[in-house]
Write a structure and sequence with these properties.
Belongs to the binding-protein-dependent transport system permease family. By secondary structure, this protein is mainly α. It has helices at 5-33, 37-41, 54-62, 65-96, 102-111, 121-135, 143-168, 171-179, 184-195, 197-212, 216-221, 229-232, 244-264, 266-274. The protein contains 14 helices and no strands.
């Protein structure tokens, strides 16, 4: 049965308004990044009176954006790799084996998502400072400490998500690999992991995006040397002026890795997020 004509027009109008609502901030960012600072600081204009690429050049000298970019890339990349590796082994064990405390472990992993991250800020700060004073291992103000911090809230979700995905992978694959002479570890790496690529990619994208744009912990746990992009963007606001055009340009530049990765891995991400919904 064909949809009523009124429904088709209503849908078109609704989708047009929704697209405009989503794209309007993007247009403001792009247009503001192409304006001189005087135009951005004055009354807003929908069409720039003068187009310039100078803000995209100045963003690298106003603040050490390249250093912040490298810090974010190292921290987000390391947190992603650690989350994926640990989550794969933990989720596979929960999905395939029965052991004492299995249910308690699963519920505990999920329950950690109920607590806001700010509750862990002060305990982690004190823990890192005390560890540094006692052992000389500098976790506070280091990339390693920030990576461990990001694991505290990306790893539980990653484990829980992969448990559901591994449950949807037929156990016959494991059994066939074991019959062919593979051990449990080899069966996981050579058989189960390739079948679970969409779920693993979804976990990796989630972990990377979480670490890439995190502000709260990065603003406390880093210093001038280890500062990340999310915190470094504040450097465009000084006591004398706010470089709005450079802020917009820098925001677009730092969004490129996340947007590009999301577009390239979109089909895996959708498959991974919907895995296990239908048995």
């Amino acid at each position: 049965m064909a949809a009523p004509r009124s429904f088709l027009w209503t849908r078109r109008v609704f989708l047009t308004l929704l697209a405009g609502f989503v794209l309007l901030p993007v247009y403001v960012m792009v247009s503001s990044s192409l304006k001189p600072l005087e135009d951005v600081s004055s009354s807003f204009r929908w069409l720039p009176s003068e187009l310039t690429l100078r803000p995209y050049v100045d963003i690298w000298s106003t603040v050490p954006l390249a250093k912040y970019f490298v810090n974010s890339l190292i921290v987000a990349g390391a947190a992603t790799v650690c989350s994926v590796v640990i989550a794969v082994f933990a989720a596979y064990a929960v999905s395939r084996y029965d052991f004492p405390g299995k249910r308690v472990f699963s519920v505990t992993v999920l329950s950690t998502q109920m607590f806001p991250g700010i509750l862990f800020l002060l305990p982690l700060f004190l823990l890192y400072v005390n560890i540094g004073n006692a052992t000389g291992i500098a976790l506070f103000g280091s990339r390693g400490g920030l990576i461990l911090t990001y694991l505290t809230f990306s790893l539980p979700f990653s484990i829980w998500m992969l448990i559901g995905y591994f449950d949807s992978v037929p156990r016959d694959l494991d059994e066939a690999a074991l019959v062919d002479g593979c051990g449990p570890l080899r069966a996981l790496v050579r058989v189960v992991v390739p079948a679970a690529i969409p779920g693993i990619v979804a976990v990796a994208v989630y972990a990377f995006m979480t670490a890439w744009g995190e502000v709260l912990f990065a603003s406390v746990m880093t210093n001038d040397t280890t500062r990340t992009l999310a915190v470094g963007l504040q450097g465009y606001s000084t006591l004398n002026d706010v470089y709005w055009n450079q802020i917009m340009a820098a925001s677009l530049v730092v969004s490129v890795p996340v947007v590009a990765g999301f577009l390239l891995l979109q089909r895996y991400l959708v498959a991974g997020l919907t895995a296990g919904a239908v048995k």
